Structures are given as C-alpha cells and as structure tokens.
Amino acid sequence: MPTNTKSPPSEYVTLISNDGFEYVILREAACVAGTIKKMLDPKSNFIEASTGRCVISQYPGIVLEKVCEYLYYNLKYRDIGTTDADANANAEGKASSGGGGGKGEGIPDMDIPPLLCMELLMAADFFDV
Q: What is the rounded CA–CA span in Å between residue 123 and residue 129?
C-alpha cells in the first residue's frame, strides 16, 4: 500500500546567480536570510521548497558568493554576544575595556571589497539579513 509521506528536506540547498553560478550551502545557513527561509518553507508552496534550488536572478555570482559567505559568517558567530560589562559600559556611554575575556572578543571582520559595498547593501535588504 503506497503511503503519502514526504522525505525530509535535504541538508543542502543550491543558490543560483543570474550569470549561472551555483552555490551549494547548508540549509541552516541559507535560512539565516529571511527571503530564502520563506522560499524554502514547505508551507509556502514555492517550487524552491520542493526542489531545494533558488534562482536569484537579481544578483551576479560575485555578489551571491559574498552573500553566501556572510550567511556562514552569521551562522558561525550568531551565538557570540557581548558580556554584561560591555553592555553596562555601552549603556553608560563608555567604551568597554575589551580585556574581560568576554564572548564578543575574537569575532573577525568580514572582508568586503569596496567595489561591492553598494550591491551588497542592496542584497542585504533583498535577502532580509
């Protein structure tokens, strides 16, 4: 007797740029972006939810690659916050000492080429990140 059960979604999804570049990334990382998360939601009835492939026709590969890098960056560092001392110093308008061994230390800056800044700003708005 056949059953009508759906297989669980793949752990990976593919993002495709307007110039044909394909980026296979973890679903968890892709869902950092609100737009992609909605596209991949099974309740959305979007084709992307069943195929796991999102065609991003607004952006070229060079921009989408940086977006993917940011999604992993956000996933990696999202649970690292500031210490209570840093929060208190910020509330009082003082700079934190930075030497307290708090969780916020050691988060590297992302390397963003100046020529991509405007496109990445627009992409951040589009992707809701």
A: 9
Predicted confidence (pLDDT) per residue in 85-126, tens digit: 454 444 444 444 444 444 556 889 999 999 999 999 999 999
Q: Quote the CA–CA distance of 86 and 103 in Å, as a whole number.
A: 10
Within 15-110, residue ranges assigned H as helices are: 27-30, 34-40, 47-51, 61-77, 84-91
Q: Which residues contact 57 (CB under 8 A, 6 or more apart)?
A: 18
What is the C-alpha to C-alpha distance for residues 81 and 128, in angstroms, rounded to an integer?
Answer: 21
Q: What is the pLDDT of residue 3?
A: 55
Q: Give dist(CA 83, CA 61) in Å, integer.
A: 37
Q: Look up tokens 């110093």; give the residue.
A: 89
Q: Does residue 14 contact residue 52 with C-beta atoms inside 8 Å? A: yes
For residues 57 and 117, the answer to whether their CB atoms sit within 8 Å is no
pLDDT reading at 2 higher than 80: no
